[in-house]
Amino acid sequence: MAVEIRELECFLVLADELHFGRTAERLYLSQSRVSQLLQSLERRIGGPLFERTSRRVALTPLGKEFLTSLRPAYAALERVVGDAREYAANVKGKLRIGFQGAANDTVLGAVAKFQSHHPDCLIDVCELPLNDPFGAVRRGDVDAAVVMLPMAEDDLVLGPVFSRQQQTLTVGSGHRLASRSSIDAEELAEETLIAIAGPAPGYWRQAQAPTQTPAGALIHRGPDVRTLQEGLSLIAAGRGGMLVCRPTAERNQHWDGIVSIPLTGVPESALGLVWRRGEDTPALKSFADQLRLK
């Protein structure tokens, strides 16, 4: 039967005091509750730990043996719990966060809020390749990454999802759709979309550059790129279009020769925080909480 911590604590205090009244006072319990805890522990062990008379309380030989073994084990347990409590309460060290593209206001706001709450933990941020959203997390180069979704990796955890945005079709200014105020996803039929090269998984690349419309019409696959800048260069050269979320399109509207048109009929783009399964440290949990509040 599993031994309860409260029973062990009661035994240790009574072994020190050898007096039920003083033991009850130290534990803020009644004397009857102290007796109940002790009796329960003795039933679990299978023998008496104390000799009790009207005049004295003394350890039995079994009780002395048990006390000798228990004291260091209980002290070690207290240290483990204390260390864990201190670690959880005092987030220190460094937290490395990667992100694809430019860190948006949501991410930067979460970084600032985290830093104000945990001044002893420094956040390092770094840009991740557009075509490899999960590699840096897997290698341990970063503790977590803000990536474009979807994410369906068994060894990674998807935390808060945020920054849901309408998609746009970004094309060259001479494209047949360039003058439109909006377009539907079915109008992508027979168009060419610039694709993102590996090592990103296939389902992720398919989401960024689909090869079919929602109704199943063919969308041609264009050249592969590794960065957004490569893609924008090919768009300006008339090699195809790209699906780009609205904020990214707005940040790059200074590019000559390209336009971005709101696109309906496709899922919104979204960002998510991902990390290695089983490695959600107190610092990482706190940062994820800040993202959820945004």
Summarize the structure.
With 294 residues, the chain is α/β, with parallel strands linked by helices. It has helices spanning 5-17, 20-27, 31-45, 61-89, 105-117, 135-139, 202-208, 228-236, 246-251, 282-293; strands at 50-52, 57-59, 93-100, 121-128, 144-148, 156-165, 167-172, 183-184, 192-196, 220-225, 242-245, 258-264, 269-276. The chain contains 10 helices and 13 strands.
Write the layout of secondary structure elements.
Layout: H1 5-17, H2 20-27, H3 31-45, E1 50-52, E2 57-59, H4 61-89, E3 93-100, H5 105-117, E4 121-128, H6 135-139, E5 144-148, E6 156-165, E7 167-172, E8 183-184, E9 192-196, H7 202-208, E10 220-225, H8 228-236, E11 242-245, H9 246-251, E12 258-264, E13 269-276, H10 282-293
Parallel strand pairs: 3-4, 3-5, 8-12, 9-10
Antiparallel strand pairs: 1-2, 5-13, 6-13, 7-11, 7-12
Helix pairs in contact: 1-2, 1-3, 1-4, 2-3, 5-10
Description:
The chain has 294 residues and is an alpha/beta fold. The chain folds into three domains: 5-89, Arc Repressor Mutant, subunit A, CATH 1.10.10; 93-163 and 271-293, 3-Layer(aba) Sandwich (D-Maltodextrin-Binding Protein, domain 2), CATH 3.40.190.10; 167-267, Periplasmic binding protein-like II (D-Maltodextrin-Binding Protein, domain 2, 3-Layer(aba) Sandwich), CATH 3.40.190.10. 40% of the residues lie in helices and 26% in strands. It contains ten helices and 13 strands. The protein has helices at residues 5-17, 20-27, 31-45, 61-89, 105-117, 135-139, 202-208, 228-236, 246-251, 282-293; strands spanning 50-52, 57-59, 93-100, 121-128, 144-148, 156-165, 167-172, 183-184, 192-196, 220-225, 242-245, 258-264, 269-276. It has a five-stranded mixed β-sheet. A four-stranded mixed β-sheet has the order 8-12-7-11. A hairpin with a 4-residue loop joins β1 (50-52) and β2. The longest helix is centred in the N-terminal third of the chain and has 29 residues, at 61-89. It is rod-shaped and about 100 Å long. The mean pLDDT is 91. This is LysR family transcriptional regulator. Keywords: DNA-binding, Transcription, Transcription regulation. Residues 3-60 form the HTH lysR-type domain. One of its GO terms (molecular function) is DNA-binding transcription factor activity. It holds the Pfam family LysR_substrate.
